[in-house]
């Protein structure tokens, strides 16, 4: 019985070296170019260019730096519509080694809990090949602004959660030890933790590299793995998308103007100095104590 | 909270499901009191004020949760929770809880929720509150709305948390209909600071800490204080002057700073001004920057997008200077001037300097 098994064994693969890092990124509309329909008051998304969520670029750069220093592999992972492949390809162009897109109708309408479920499941799949050392995310996205998906992933995967990190002071792969600086109220916490961990990177902590020519060329041709919910390892579709989302958006509405219309200061025929005086009169009439506040001794 | 706004889901079947049996006995409104290095974050008291209103509407109790070391500072925080309206205070004290760390805090708060079953849990949208809320909501598998700007109880006695949607014009109201507790974070200064009543007191409920320091992986090696004197104290200033893209370039921000200085106030700006690199992020006003509640707010060359609006609506008096008579900012300003900020700001600065006298000029 022993004989055939030994024969069936493949020659041992070289033990993968360095860090196994996954960076979760999101494709978002470029907020600088969003316009609002003048009549319906709704966002006009058509034709608005998409970008990688700007906060995610700090996470990606930090991941690439660690890889350059310690060796290893950086995978970028995104959940989104098929067109989110563009964002992943851009990340490959910046130097990521490989890309995975999880896309499935069943993910549509995910809130942050359902999003962290889908991403954590896919991360579990990626980790089957080789355990993940660090998962990176941006601090938050510019379209949702919740900052909840990172902690959600950490919790689901049992990773040590390190949010709002401004710098990684040291990393010891052998000891699986990491020391980071974490922004907190009124200062910075220096934390020692252990791999595997999840890091959400603070903005303006590094500068995203310009992709090398080789990376750009590779990115154009490199395959982006496209996974359905099933491919990603989702066993229970009830936990995905709208159905897996405990939050429900019940009402979307335009804010109402203040009941009392703004009092407009007339400017016709007045010099700027006169307008200034008129405005001050109105201010002091509305709040007679303002003058005292303005002239109070200053520290 | 949904990452992207979903369409109004009123028509969606199954949305109005009955609350599952296991959540029926979830009751009371809880506020997590953020104590760091002995100091209670003011947002916690702001939330207590709001929590009191929600609890009164629901006819239930308002509870505060205080987690920290066994110390005088913790004791003081507990006492204060009653002054701010708590009927009961849930307390877990242990040396391992001296500094905030995600793991033990998540454990403690999750345990408290599982044991005492609140229907609403509110936290400040601070670095600590956001770090903790995300973990706790995921552990409890419940809904969490980030950065709510308004909280209300609807006819079905559910919590509706309102926040701006992406894009700058619309608000949405989010519910966690079939899950408990209903969780939300709220940014500092979004809710008004209530007046404490030192004559009030209430019940204390202690719970034990079930972890051991040795089991907690992450250690705090050091805390490096910011020495914040150089940072803007925008959120708490009485008078704020801000500039937006209407100022056209970085140099013109000087006009905003000059006026703020004469008025003895702080200055700030809209988000694109920060994105352009004309000002640092701590100067940003709005949903994703500082929420302000000054006595007087002067906005120059700011269009009044919803994300900006929700950050300034708590101001007592809002003055808008904008060349566009149809700018949205005039929808919520008290006083408006349709004028070029580049000429009006210096004129106003001078007029104020004259009016306020030599004292203002000297500083
Ligand atoms: C998720 C998200 C979060 C956001 N968070 C924030 C936030 O926290 N804070 C924030 O401010 N924005 C935020 N924004 C951006 C917001 O939607 C608006 O884009 C932004 O507030 C617009 O800034 P602005 O008014 O300075 O610029 P614009 O919208 O470009 O307005 C410029 C205004 O200046 C006027 N103007 C032009 N010339 C003059 C002149 N010479 N004198 C006087 N007026 C003049 C114009 O009429 C116009 O009204 C956020 C957006 C998103 C998507």
Automatic annotation (TrEMBL), chain A:
The keyword Electron transport applies. Pfam families: ETF (PF01012). The keyword Electron transport applies. It comes from the Bacteria. GO terms for molecular function: electron transfer activity. Keywords: Electron transport, Transport. InterPro entries: ET-Flavoprotein_bsu_CS (IPR000049), ETF_a/b_N (IPR014730), ETF_b (IPR012255), ETF_beta_N (IPR033948), Rossmann-like_a/b/a_fold (IPR014729). Residues 40-236 form the Electron transfer flavoprotein alpha/beta-subunit N-terminal domain. CDD domains: ETF_beta. May play a role in a redox process involved in nitrogen fixation. Belongs to the ETF beta-subunit/FixA family. FixA and FixB form a heterodimer. PANTHER family: ELECTRON TRANSFER FLAVOPROTEIN BETA-SUBUNIT, PROTEIN FIXA. This is Protein FixA. The lineage of its organism: Bacteria, Pseudomonadati, Pseudomonadota, Alphaproteobacteria, Rhodobacterales.
Automatic annotation (TrEMBL), chain B:
Residues 29-220 form the Electron transfer flavoprotein alpha/beta-subunit N-terminal domain. InterPro entries: DHS-like_NAD/FAD-binding_dom (IPR029035), ETF_a/b_N (IPR014730), ETF_a/FixB (IPR001308), ETF_alpha_N (IPR033947), ETF_asu_C (IPR014731), ETF_asu_C_CS (IPR018206), Rossmann-like_a/b/a_fold (IPR014729). The keyword Transport applies. Its cofactor is FAD. GO terms for molecular function: electron transfer activity; flavin adenine dinucleotide binding. Keywords: Electron transport, FAD, Flavoprotein, Transport. The keyword Electron transport applies. FAD binds at residues 270-271, 284-288, 301-308, 322. GO terms for biological process: fatty acid beta-oxidation using acyl-CoA dehydrogenase. Pfam families: ETF, ETF_alpha. Binds 1 FAD per dimer. Belongs to the ETF alpha-subunit/FixB family. This is Electron transfer flavoprotein alpha subunit. The lineage of its organism: Bacteria, Pseudomonadati, Pseudomonadota, Alphaproteobacteria, Rhodobacterales.
